[in-house]
Amino acid sequence: MVDNPLNILFATTEATPYIKTGGLADVSGSLPPVMRTLGNDVRLILPAYPETVDKLGDVTEAAVLRAP
Fold first, then answer.
1. How many whole angstroms from its chain centre is CA 23?
2. What is the pTM of this model?
3. Stretch 53-62: mean pLDDT, rounded?
4. Distance CA 10, CA 3 (A)
5. Alpha helices in 1-68 (DSSP H)
């Protein structure tokens, strides 16, 4: 456990097992859970690709972010 837990927002374009096109997905899918076991509050955000949303099942939309 860490002495001073962090609030971490992990933003990525891919994460296993939801969407994978390369090595980034492996890191994005495995690093946040490990950081969480150390006592940090870790949240993962992904683009709402239709295939990804279908795989997630029951999720809560926390925000909608739009880029110009």
1. 15
2. 0.73
3. 79
4. 20
5. 23-37, 50-56
